[in-house]
Amino acid sequence: KRSGSWRGMNFSPTQPVDLAAAAVCGSHAMTAASTSIAPVVEDDIEDLEDLGGAETADGVRVTRDLPPVVTLRAKRSASRAAVGGGGANTDGVGHRSRANDSDGRGAQSDDDDDEEGDDVPEILGSSEPAGASAVPGVAKVHVKTFGCSHNHSDSEFMAGQLGAYGYDLVTDPDDADVWVVNTCTVKNPSQSAMNTVITKGKAQGKKLVIAGCVPQGDKKAKELEDLSLIGVTQIDRIVDVVERTLAGDAVRLLEKKPLPSLDLPKVRRNEHVEILPLSTGCLGQCTYCKTKHARGELGSYSPEALVQRVQTAIAEGVTEIWLSSEDTGAYGIDLGTDVTRLLRDITAVLPTDGSCMLRLGMTNPPYILAHLDAVADAMHHPSVYAFLHIPVQAGSDAVLDRMKREYVVAEFEKVADTLLAKVPGITIATDIICGFPGETSEDWERTMALCRKYKFVELHLSQFYPRPGTPAARMKRVDTKEVKRRSRELTAYIESYRPHDKLVGTTQKVWVTDVAKDKVSLVGHTKSYVQVLLPGGEENKARLMGKSAEVRIIDAHRWHVTGELIEVHDRTAPRPEAPPAPKYSSPAAEAWDLKTRKRKEAAARADRVNEKGNNACSSCGAPEGETCGGDKEGTGSSDAETTTTRNDESLGTWMFRALTTAPENRLEWILTAGVFLGLLGIMLSWVASHLSKIASGVSAIASMTRTDR
Q1: What confidence score (pLDDT) does residue 651 get?
Q2: 451 φ, ψ to 5°?
Q3: Cα–Cα dist 563/540, whole Å
Q4: Beta strands at 140-145 and 178-183: parallel, antiparallel or unpaired
Q5: Cβ atoms within 10 A of the Cβ of 280, count?
Q6: Do the Cβ atoms of 634 and 647 come closer than 8 Å?
Q7: 163 burial type by CB count under 10 A (0-12 exposed, 13-18 middle, 19+ buried)
Q8: What pLDDT is recorded for position 575?
Q9: If residue 687 lies in a helix (H) or strand (E), which one and from where to where?
Q10: Is 396 helix (H, G, I), strand (E, B) or coil?
Q11: Which ranges constitute the DSSP H helices of 138-283?
Q12: Rounded distance, CA 436 to CA 438, Å?
């Protein structure tokens, strides 16, 4: 079962996975593996990246992106994953995330205890004795995801690890022993949906693990009491958290650490699409944003790690690669690099036959301004979609200032105008928040004027939702009736024009990657990322899925076009094997791994000393009188020798280390204290000697004064 096809999931590791060894070493020892599974839609939850939409011939509504709610399958192992913070694949990549409120309050104090620590789960206690579901090898897990593509990527990594360890992930939540719920905190409806799932799970007696932005940003929420929580940077520990939850513990693993490795096993929600997170967090301080509390400050993966992951996905046969980020334009600032270099490096490894397409992620105007030429150059590549999501949020500078968006409307217009001029046919998608606190009628009319100017092909409209703990939640709100009126006004306008009519009668190359929500039509995209619906059926699905094709556009609708097949393109360029992943992808990852190893070494020394008595060598644990284990030549060096000057360490080197690092045992405490006391005595002697000279000088001057008198 571990090497074959499981129910509903085709598990095909790219490298052999030694499950027995992995069970001993923990989830961090696993090599990368990618699998695929058809998504199952259960709720109609809005996704900020699920822009636009379409209708089939029979009126069934479909969306441009994959469904925002999915479930996955895998199987559980017979051995428990070891608890540990380091290892070959847990060094992580990127920058440590820090949770803080937009106005410097709230979430910062709430999460201070998670900022540093020993990377060990907080066990709140067993809610009940372990039942049958805790027996190794028989537990079933249901994974449910809310929110953006970054969240879906996290779920894919968590499902991949669970699958590699043998957990049985089921599509039917009623069949599961434990639910892993990956949450979104962008808007009230998404968090309310999480609450509904939690209530339903508790009513059915299910074990619950809550992941994602809600527990990371608001761990003290009432709905999360007595539940297992796992933070956004701790997804490489999901196996351990699930296992302990099944055993009856409520585990909280929310410590901030570098991003998890991109080399983890993965179960793709769509086997033809690789979702690649560039970073986490952002540099902004938007007053309405709750996601910043969870994702924190900007933390980027290194260009080398991202390029290697792109090469791995290409070697595994994907058709699309989605770059996902809270702000693509800000990528790499924390590492001293930028998105220009990243786009150059990634496009250099894309297949030359256009069999794999790259889609750029969401970007805010401020940081992309300096990279418009690089973005335009990338979109001229035959394997890069001419599509970019640039949220403007409002067409009024006054509203943008209250939002703390860090740009003005003119800067957004510069971004849009430049790309429209440099990339003919580009599709620019945007977001609008309707009814932000303080938005006047004049402000709203400016927003409407901006939408009329650009006639955005794709526009995501959202009424303002006050998120607890954000500055905007304390602002005076616009009347609800007026907000709804404005929302209806903009909705009516964006549905009044038909940007795709010009495509009717043309021949377009499309890339087919999905099945529409009617479960029949096939979904493809043009180079400008216009959604094309094609005839479905098992025969066409086998011919087209994951491939590109020439189609003739025969009809156009507001959100999509329909086409008829002319020719299917076969892949002509070879897809070479991917190079090995780098061990460390950022300085933060290397520093974290070093910290973890030192902590484990110190704990091991302490355990040896405790086992063999206080007189044992504090370096190796050897009893007093025996040869020190730290003496590799067997010369019988004593504890004092090994702890004072270590192997191959001169006295001068030890003195420098003693003065610049924390002592590691009692002898070093005594010697370090002696050194400091000696230095203090020298300083006091120097001061005393100079004071006596000064006193002598003063006395001589006083004597001369008396003599003159």
Answers
A1: 58
A2: -65, -35
A3: 13
A4: parallel
A5: 28
A6: no
A7: buried
A8: 77
A9: helix 666-708
A10: coil
A11: 149-164, 188-203, 213-217, 238-246
A12: 6
The predicted-structure confidence for 347-386, as pLDDT tens digits, reads as follows 999 998 889 999 999 999 999 999 999 999 999 999 999 9
- The residue that leads in pLDDT, 535 or 110, is 535
Whether the Cβ atoms of residue 354 and residue 496 lie closer than 8 Å to each other? no
Q: How many Å apart are CA 78 and CA 59, to the nearest integer?
A: 48
Q: What DSSP letter does each residue of 399-446 carry, written as one string?
A: HHHHHT-S--HHHHHHHHHHHHHHSTT-EEEEEEEES-TT--HHHHHH
Q: What is the dihedral of CA 158, 160, 189, 446, to 10 degrees?
A: 100
pTM of the model: 0.68
Structure tokens at 13: 């590791």
> Which run of H or E residues covers position 697?
helix 666-708
Q: How many other C-beta atoms can be found within 10 angstroms of the C-beta atom of residue 499?
A: 16
Among 514, 257, 688, 494, which Cα is nearest to 532's? 514
| Residues 407-417 pLDDT 10s | 999 999 999 99
Distance of alpha carbon 611 from alpha carbon 607, whole angstroms: 6
pLDDT digits (tens, 9 = 90+) for 446-472: 999 999 999 999 999 999 989 888 999
d(C-alpha 24, C-alpha 546), whole Å: 37
Q: How many residues does the chain have?
A: 709
435 Cβ contact list (under 8 Å, min separation 6): 463, 464, 477, 478, 482, 483, 486, 487
Alpha helices in 495-564 (DSSP H): 538-544
Q: pLDDT tens digits, residue range 18-52? A: 333 333 333 333 333 444 333 333 333 333 333 33
Name which of 226, 258, 139, 133 is nearest 585 in CA terms: 258
Q: Which residues pair with 393 in a beta bridge?
A: 432
Intra-chain end-to-end CA distance of the chain, in Å: 110
